[in-house]
Amino acid sequence: EIHIKEPIEKEVNPHLLPGELLLCEASTVYKYIQEDGSNRGTYGKLVCTNFKIAFLDDDSASDDNEPQFKNKIVGENDITLQCVDQIYGVYDEKKKLLTGQLRKYPEKLIIYCKDLRVFHFCLRYTKEEEVKRIVSGIVHHSQTPKLLKRLFLFSYASAAPNNTDGRNQTVMFDTLEDWRDELERTKGNVKYKAVTTNEGYRVSEKLPLYFVVPICVSEENILKYEGRGIPIWCWSCHNGAALLKMSAFPKEQDDITSQTQKAFLDGIYKTISKPPYELLKMDDLSSSLPSLQDIQIAYTRFKQLFLIDNSTDFWATDVKWFSLLESTNWLEIIRRVLKKAIEVAECLERQHTNVLLIEESATDLCCVISSLVQVMMDSYSRTKSGFQSLIQKEWVIGGHGFLDRCNHLHKSDKEEAPVFLLLLNCVWQLVQQYPPAFEFTETYLTVLSDSLYVPIFSTFFFNSQHQKDTNTSGESLKTQSAPFRFLTVWDWSVQFDPKAQAFLNNPLYAEKPKLDKNQRKTARFKHQRQLSLPLTQTKSSTKRGFFREETDHLIKNILGKRIGKFINSSDEPPNSFREFYDSWHSKPVDYHGLLLPRIDGPEIKVWAQRYLRWIPEAQLHGGGTIATAAKILDLMEEVQSLQVKMDEEHSQAVSGDVHSVPMLRNSARLSSLFPFALLQRQSIKPALPTSTWKDLEDEDDLVKRDDEFVDLSGDM
């Protein structure tokens, strides 16, 4: 049986943003609902603008079925041009990749998106002229190379009224004061200084206007090799050890140049390595972590598992799911990156050693590791504003090439690599392992990953601060207009109303308790006990008394800290990482102290909400974490109402977080991948292992066998 909605009678026009222009359109296009094996769908109009591809049906005109979590910029049936991954045409039931000029036009169009949505459009009932216009228009505007100034970012910035306050407590790191404040916050201003050497970009266009270097580094040194070979400060640990990054010299050079550069580096290293008082560990990430090419290959394989055309494809892959997942190598790359971050944290926290991350440009894997280390070691980076400030500092101002790595201009596939997505995947592992430690939710991370492809924000659409500054002037050949005022992605009110923004905040976040002066002293001592490990590997005998153990610990820390570290550093036992890892995991978690991710075996999981949200077969109706959250929120509401009854005067001071995830009443009806999958249609196949459902004859049996349902998000 084929269910078809009749073609729409009334004219439905696309909702256009400021600066958005309608380029081409086609009527009587049939959009399939790919969730099930039938040909169910709806007729509508397919349009292409300079911002997006959109499908408009009669539902687009009505606001009756508005979802609880609605994006104000990108609708359910909208695909931004930057979000288009690949476009296939179907000719006589055969799929063919569409690029460039087309000689023959397909009867069906399949669009695969970077956020893993899949759209199927049937063009059989559309006029031939309209088919030619819409197909060639979509392929041209989403797949062919373009100039930077042709991005919708510039059209929007020149046409939109910019009344929003984009800062939102997020530190942008575009002023000298921001860097000085960060130095003061982390107590790094004793050994490091913010410099203005690159004002006017006279050192390098790749470096930001302002950055931080060791106090002993002179301006002459910074200028000598355009900033290469200079340790740039990222963050300082509570014990004074610092995390630094450095852009390496090219490897293939003649002997004289190499020797000169080596002598230069030796001089620089002496400014941050002063044994036995201050030690330095160098880590060349290009040799200790997978290459960008390996990361790109792994992610390309991985995402194919989730770009599902129909139910049949899903159940076909289900039989060999684990072997397919393992063969992509994506989860193994996440594990390796997390392991490297733990190693760096060990050096800083346990060995009190400065760590210098080295990479060719220091703008890819350096960004991943330095950000992860700060999320693990600094509880401020686990708040929403702190995490956003971290992304600004390490990625946006730090010079990560978003334009090239996301291939927004379609200029070179060779430069493309999902480096920022890799960071978000790693942070998600921590968020799902330690939910109370984070002020934001996994929904926040998912939305942030989607924002990579929304070209109304400047945050993820430039390669460097220099590139943004030089393109902000707003000058054209004919007229000299005012500078562009770009939006920042951190102003979430642009994409979501307050009710939807509530989904980004974690109602169960364990806020840092405010202590009085006496408590602070005790807390600091306990904090050190919890995080520091004895210098020697030998474990103290259980028979020794508590006070004896305490005095031994103090003697080691007071008398042997500096020199002991220096002696042990040269022949650090090979299992020191494991000892540090196991010792930390054997103690209670301090949600405001150091956090180490669990990285053994099945602890590294698939980010279910991001990758499975468009696949109904992978959803549990009335199950998953959302069901738990709904119950907890019920309890919180009950507690709050009791509090109000007990003391009317203090009702204003009680947190309103209880309502921070609105309308979770009927958790039994919600999908486990809420809020992206709401009350989805039931899949025609139950969410059972393939082997199980193939054996089942009667649909009634499925209801009786609840115990066999599998929560894919949990297993992965």
From TrEMBL:
Alphabetized InterPro entries for the sequence: MTMR12-like_C (IPR022587), MTMR12_PTP (IPR030576), Myotubularin (IPR030564), Myotubularin-like_Pase_dom (IPR010569), PH-like_dom_sf (IPR011993), Prot-tyrosine_phosphatase-like (IPR029021)
Record-linked SUPFAM superfamilies: (Phosphotyrosine protein) phosphatases II (SSF52799), PH domain-like (SSF50729)
Gene3D superfamilies linked: Pleckstrin-homology domain (PH domain)/Phosphotyrosine-binding domain (PTB)
PROSITE patterns with a match to the protein in the record: PPASE_MYOTUBULARIN
Domain of life where this protein originates: Eukaryota
Entry GO terms, CC: membrane; sarcomere; sarcoplasmic reticulum
All residue ranges annotated as the Myotubularin phosphatase domain in the record: 173-611
Locations listed in the record: Cytoplasm, Myofibril, Sarcomere; Sarcoplasmic reticulum
PANTHER family: MYOTUBULARIN-RELATED, MYOTUBULARIN-RELATED PROTEIN 12
Family indicated by similarity: Belongs to the protein-tyrosine phosphatase family. Non-receptor class myotubularin subfamily.
Protein name, as recorded: Myotubularin-related protein 12
Organism, as annotated: Spheniscus mendiculus
Gene name of this polypeptide: MTMR12
